[in-house]
Specification:
422 residues, alpha/beta, Rossmann fold, 4 domains, 4-stranded parallel beta sheet, 13 strands, 47% helix, elongated, binds guanosine-5'-triphosphate, binds magnesium ion
Amino acid sequence: MIPAAELVILVGLEHEGVTRWDLQDSLEELRLLADTAGAKVVESVIQRLDKPTAPFYIGKGKAEEIAKSSKEKHATSVIFDDELSPAQSRNLEEITHRKVIDRTQLILDIFASRARTREGRLQIELAQLQYLLPRLTGMWSHLSRQTGGIGTRGPGETQLEVDRRRVQDRIARLERELAEVRKHRGIQREGRLRHNWPFISLVGYTNAGKSSLLNRLTGATVEARDRLFETLDPTTRQLTLPNHQKVLLTDTVGFIRKLPHTLIESFKATLEEVQLANLLLHVVDLSHPRHAEQIEAVDAVLGELDAKGKQTIMVFNKCDLVTDPEIVQANLARHPGSVAVSARTGDGMAQLIQELEIRLAAWRMQGRFVIPLTEQALLAEIHRVGHVLDLKYGEASAMITAHIPPELIGRLSKYDAGSPQK
Ligand SMILES: Nc1nc2c(ncn2[C@@H]2O[C@H](COP(=O)(O)OP(=O)(O)OP(=O)(O)O)[C@@H](O)[C@H]2O)c(=O)[nH]1
Ligand SMILES: [Mg+2]
């Protein structure tokens, strides 16, 4: 963890494929990340090179300049906007005499401070250890080079092996514990599946307003703050649409550009909520100058989760902050079936709910059935998974008019009593 108000210097590299504009945005985001982690940025450094250098990522001269400047400005850490190789981190620490942190580490650090549930904590520790494992090698290899002769095993090497084994053991234990926790969650999920209500997942860039929207729609009280990665652990709430369709809405971790791969891997279980969803609400902060790039970044992560191409409603949020109506119109036109809302003022919620009803129409069919009272289990199931509009008991049967999920239609067909009156 970075202690509060630690002074830091940010470093970004402009190279082929990265324009100055991309970099400026990326550094601005890095500043927000540093801020979220409790650090104070005293300087941002940009260097232009054809490509990153193998030993230092930036040029050696630049690294020396940063060393000087961090001394003058009392910075204790230098944060790089990309993932560094183990060797680059080590070399940079040697030259700057400062703690060197890369973007991945910073994001891992924030996640670690945010995790609340046992599953969240186990997942983040796993991601941190996986990040650490190849770096242990880096930490020790220079020692073993000094101490180990040909055909001998130097003490550095031995120490490295001990450390590696320890980390690997811990990883194995975490994986076992996670499997246990997940078994429990699987049971919860099966419970939800039994109800046969559609799952909807809120996805979007971090800070887009996913939790605010969940709160606005369901009256939930998920923490919503102007900080990155405020939400880590998924929260599911039930929502009943005006047409009585019940749905389950899940809010989960936000995405970001260059989301570390180890994180995606270890959070795959949490993100399963996204994979299982029948419908995604892709929440976009339309007031953000780079909302188009944020949409792309979210799509890229969805791709990694095999969740691209799922039925999606684009929800353009924070419209109360958008001064140019052109921006709203252009985005609505570009994405058919999208809605413009403000989770803060409640504007656009009626349209969003209407759109939800339209997209989920296939989940509801109205039918009228005459069911023998001996079929108690079936009657109970209709009550559980459907929405009963009318019910009359006869001597030996019940006449029931209900909205039911399509997969029940087949089993009910022999009791069909003709088309219902509206
Ligand atoms: N003005 C305005 N602010 C909003 C709106 N929706 C959310 N916010 C603010 O934006 C910030 C982020 O909102 P959250 O709901 O925490 O965003 P999130 O997408 O859940 O963020 P993470 O969990 O960090 O990924 C908070 O300060 C909200 O109050 C909106 O419609 N208008
Ligand atoms: Mg949130």
